[in-house]
């Protein structure tokens, strides 16, 4: 059954705090199954997440309050209240918000919940495979691997 919820009365387990970053899981609280809707609260000087891209998870962000910097691949963009951006999946667009302002940066963060998503963290040269819940160092990649079952082994 669909129910109306309010930010002032969020159910237990629908918020998370990691140091200077807090997230409210609105979609989860409302019972969303395929879409996530969050509000991220980023303290001055803090980052919203590690710099990363998604293979399957499309995202949409809107700045609700404050201002900061949005890293998109090799570029940095200043963002402020009212700015919004869509980030299509599978395009290799790495992103991260940094609160460069003096007030809390509030970000509406929406996207698809995908079980098969793979995240790449270019700053750390790491890949995260969501379905396995495992991280791998890209520098450890096997350069001469083949899936050919009859190829000679070294």
From TrEMBL:
GO molecular function, one term: metal ion binding
This protein's name: Mannose-6-phosphate isomerase
Cited SUPFAM superfamilies: RmlC-like cupins
Alphabetical UniProt keywords: Isomerase, Metal-binding
Signal peptide start-end: none
Cupin type-2 domain segment(s): 42-109
């Amino acid at each position: 059954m669909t129910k109306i919820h309010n930010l002032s009365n969020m159910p237990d387990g629908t918020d998370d705090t990691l140091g200077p970053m807090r997230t409210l899981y609105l979609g989860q609280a409302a019972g969303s199954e395929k879409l996530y809707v969050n509000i991220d609260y980023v303290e001055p000087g803090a980052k919203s997440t590690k710099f990363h891209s998604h293979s399957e998870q499309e995202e949409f962000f809107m700045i609700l309050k404050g201002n900061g910097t949005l890293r998109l691949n090799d570029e940095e963009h200043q963002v402020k209240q009212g700015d919004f951006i869509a980030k299509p999946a599978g395009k290799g667009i790495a992103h991260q918000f940094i609160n460069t302002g003096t007030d809390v940066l509030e970000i509406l963060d929406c996207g698809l919940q995908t079980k098969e998503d793979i995240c790449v963290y270019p700053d750390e040269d790491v890949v995260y495979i969501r379905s396995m819940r495992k991280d791998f160092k890209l520098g450890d990649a096997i350069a001469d691997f083949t899936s050919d079952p009859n190829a000679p082994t070294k």
